[in-house]
Amino acid sequence: MKTKYVLITPAHNEEQLIEGLIKSVLAQTIPTQKWIIVDDASTDTTGEIIKRYAGQYDFITYLRLPREDETTYYDHRTKVVLNGYQAIKKLR
């Protein structure tokens, strides 16, 4: 049985790092089933970079949220439908 996983990545003003992160995930030997990249109201080009990759790869979803505290962010995140995935682990 192949391993399946979902990524949820928060990003705020990460234009210097986000493309490298995306390329790193794309290069993994076990591909992700779904990747939701949450733009937490970035004021730089983070959102444009994410949208470009989301347009190229069906498993990448771009989600933009207004700037909020961490608790509100995780409440929004848990409302995203993951089609059969039950567990969400907080990584920060």
Explain briefly what this protein structure is.
This protein has 92 residues and is α/β, with parallel strands linked by helices.
Walkthrough of the structure:
With 92 residues, the chain is α/β, with parallel strands linked by helices. The protein has one domain: Spore Coat Polysaccharide Biosynthesis Protein SpsA, Chain A, CATH 3.90.550. The protein is 32% helix and 21% strand. A three-stranded parallel sheet has the order 1-2-3, with helices on both faces. The protein is globular and about 40 Å long. The relative contact order is 0.21.
Computed structural class: alpha/beta
Proportion in β-strands: 15-25%
> How far is the N terminus from the C terminus?
29 Å
Rg over C-alpha atoms, rounded to the nearest angstrom:
13 Å
Please, what is the CATH homologous superfamily? Spore Coat Polysaccharide Biosynthesis Protein SpsA, Chain A
Number of discrete domains: 1
Number of strands: 3
CATH class: Alpha Beta
Order of helices and strands: EHEHEH
Main beta-sheet strand count, sense and barrel state: 3 strands, parallel
**What is the mean pLDDT?**
81
Helix content: 25-40%
Q: Compute the number of helices.
A: 3
Shape: globular
CATH architecture: Alpha-Beta Complex
Major sheet: arrangement of strands = 1-2-3
CATH topology: Spore Coat Polysaccharide Biosynthesis Protein SpsA, Chain A
Which spans have pLDDT < 50 for at least 5 consecutive residues? none
